[in-house]
Design goal:
The structure is a homodimer. Chain A is mainly alpha-helical and 457 residues long. The first copy, chain A, has a domain of 313 residues. In chain A, the strands form 3 sheets. A two-stranded antiparallel sheet of chain A has the order 1-2. In chain A, a hairpin with a 2-residue loop joins strand 1 and strand 2. The longest helix of chain A has 31 residues. The radius of gyration of chain A is 27 Å and the shape is globular. The relative contact order of chain A is 0.11. The interface between A and B is large, with 68 and 68 residues. Chain A: It holds the Pfam family CTP_transf_1. Chain A: This is Phosphatidate cytidylyltransferase. Chain A: Its EC number is 2.7.7.41.
């Protein structure tokens, strides 16, 4: 989430005083940091306290057509219009890709991931002036490909089991998947060690760590998003919509009612925006869950039909997407004069998702704000006019995606039976038989299977 | 140690040169120089031998300690692995503090240790749930913790994350982000791999002992070969490593691994997976040894048949696996050591810490082990895959019967 950025025009307007105070705080930061770094005393201190050069993120990037259309307006309104138009464009784009189906969604998630990775790595390069280490860009992209290969291989092996069984080379890749991924990663690791150059050790280690932390944050969570998607598109749409709604609602509440600042990191956030955003997001999530639970297209797990070689989204909806009758507690019964209410259980889950997205999700945004302040950048990049880079739009999404995944794994989905079956089929026949007997006695104890026949004498 | 040595050396040379310049004049200066060199050599060789003795004695002590903890069984091993992990983590974090002068950020030490506990809790919970399935089923609170394990771990981690965000102080943003990243990369390297070591251990103590012994042997053999025959430098990062040491270490480690595999494959104590007996509440290491630990007859290829005049040879299949493990440990394992050397040079430190006299910190001894542990784990998972059995069984047992029967009906 970004605060309102002063773009285009900029000079000689009532907001310039804010600009100046920003500069003052930046100056303080710079002094403070240089004081911290003084004790380094070696040639690398320059790398530790870089002046981040003016990036392209600071220059105006609005397309010409918008500029022309908004010529007559004062700069502040121009800003609002640009942000508003682009927000609507992004929401429309979101609906479009949902309409186009799961394959498109996966491709979009992948491109977002690659763009976020590239933005963060570019910031690392600028901070450390490490453009002159040519190996490093290659190695960063190589590690990205390795980790993606590892994660996609795990996902594909799980969900496209039938396809994998059919093709011989795919079977080999699936069986030794972890070993192949590890070998690929090791090759990159050895290349890193061989590429260590005498004067640039520290820089190279910094970039190595930077790459790995970025991979940890960006790539892991984009794969959690895709795993959520496979559970059913509703698990993808609802969390993302919750975060978008919270962003917009908190902004609007803060705009109209905002008075008490929330946190020093993001001075424009207010308590009124925070709380207003929370309540409106819970309501929004509740309604959205109701709307989406009715369609199989959203609710069914994405399956792969190996005969027709396409994705099928047809199933018998799980229990949480079947309307159920809940008895209201006595207190609410008296006020509303309803005895029972018909709800989808998923709506109750959506309340928890919304609460997390509004209360804890913003910490992802604060983290990104702190990061930007720490490295003295205004935005991650300049991809979206008025909004900044892709990473700026997605910083709150990451915590939400991880939470949704953990939530599904803990409360919705039990162990995946087809996966268990797959693992069982890999074992030796004696082991399979042993598991079968253990399972049989277990089910007999629980009364699911008829009791063992009497022993023959 | 080396620091003391240099200091005394320079002191001796200094005093000697003063003596010479007082007593000698230009004609006899070469005599002075010779005597100065002579005493210089004596002093330095004294310190070198002292160094060698200390290093030698401590190497033997560590190897003896290794045997001792193997003898004492799996629980002791797990405790030792945990303490090594905590010590390595503490060493690396302390280096981070020193590099960034971040002692004045009191939250940070707390947060780093908190993250360590969280990640350990997550990993140990996954391991315990897998291997102590019976125990977990019995105790009600453990069942709750096991069922919602991932959620609880995530919640704990999130609490730490939020504390980090709330602890960001205006003037120290960058420092705090550096320490955050430093902590996470350390966790990734140290904690993940110590848990892989423990998972290897549960497969059978031989999967713990053989890789570690391979790395130790490679260290020692490469050092000895380099000492006696070393001439061609190997890599600029570590100027004392030589190609002769590298190759000599490789061959001797393969032979050593082969012999060690033969010796250990005969005992159930090493070969059987560590099991937990819920009745007696103890670890049992009894089983029918898997096929790879049963002696088999291999027909030698024709070429070797002619030279050795043996038709077949009796080997444990595990010995063939040990050749692959040894090859990795000698050829790729040293890259872990080079990585650590580069790290030390990058941050201008001589050793990670000063825990072991003559050797440095715990991390210095274990830097090669980490790649080996990960490789062994991936090797087991890909080519041996005994643990799938346990995971499959536990997954089934953890399902509720209703869910399970319905699911299987659908399949």
């Amino acid at each position: 989430m970004t605060e309102l950025r002063k773009r285009g025009g900029g000079g000689g307007d009532p907001d310039s005083s804010e600009n100046i105070s920003d500069k003052e705080t930046d100056g303080d930061d710079r002094l403070g940091l240089q004081g911290d770094m003084e004790g380094e005393g070696d040639g690398d201190s320059k790398a530790d306290t870089p002046d981040v050069p003016l990036s392209s993120a600071d220059t105006d990037n609005t397309p010409q057509c918008l500029n022309k259309a908004l010529e007559g307006l004062p700069p502040r309104w121009k800003n609002y219009w640009i942000r508003g138009v682009l927000s609507l464009a992004m929401i429309f784009g979101f609906f479009l890709i949902i309409y186009m189906g799961p394959i498109t969604l996966i491709l979009v998630v992948m491109s977002v991931q690659i763009k976020c990775f590239q933005e963060i790595i570019t910031i690392g390069y600028r901070v450390y002036h490490s453009y002159e280490l040519p190996w490093f860009r290659t190695l960063s992209w190589y590690f990205l490909i390795c980790v993606n290969y590892f994660f996609y291989g795990e996902t594909v092996a799980d969900y496209f089991g039938a396809l994998v069984q059919r093709e011989e080379p795919l079977q080999f890749l699936a069986r030794y998947h972890r070993f192949i991924s590890f070998a690929l990663y090791l090759a990159g690791f050895c290349m890193f060690v061989l590429s260590l150059v005498k004067k640039h050790y520290r820089l190279q280690f910094y970039m190595f760590a930077w790459t790995h932390v970025t991979l940890l944050i960006v790539v892991t969570q984009s794969h959690l998003v895709i795993q959520n998607l496979f559970e059913g598109m509703i698990w993808f749409i609802v969390p993302i919509s919750i975060v978008i709604c919270n962003d917009i609602m908190a902004y609007l509440f803060g705009f109209f009612f905002g008075r008490t600042p929330l946190i020093k990191l993001s001075p424009k956030k207010t308590w009124e925006g925070f709380i207003g955003g929370f309540f409106s997001t819970v309501v929004f999530g509740f309604i959205l869950a109701y709307l989406l639970s009715q369609f199989q297209y959203f609710v069914c797990p994405v399956g792969y039909n190996s005969e027709t070689n396409s994705f099928t989204i047809e199933c018998e909806p799980s229990d949480i997407f079947v309307m159920q009758e809940y008895t209201l507690p006595a207190a609410i019964q008296n006020t509303l004069r309803w005895k029972t209410v018909n709800l989808y259980p998923f709506q109750i889950h959506s309340i928890f998702l919304s609460s997390f997205g509004s209360l804890i999700g913003p910490f992802g945004g604060f983290f990104a704000s702190g990061f930007k302040r720490a490295f003295k950048i205004k935005d991650f990049a300049n991809t979206i006019p008025g909004h900044g880079g892709i990473m700026d739009r997605f910083d709150c999404q990451y915590l939400m995606a991880t939470f949704t995944h953990v939530y599904i794994a803990s409360f919705i989905r039990g162990p995946n039976p087809s996966k268990v079956l797959q693992q069982l089929l890999l074992l030796q026949p004696e082991q399979q038989l042993s598991i079968f007997h253990t399972l049989q006695s277990h089910l007999r104890d629980r009364g699911m299977l008829p009791a063992a026949p009497a022993h023959h004498d």
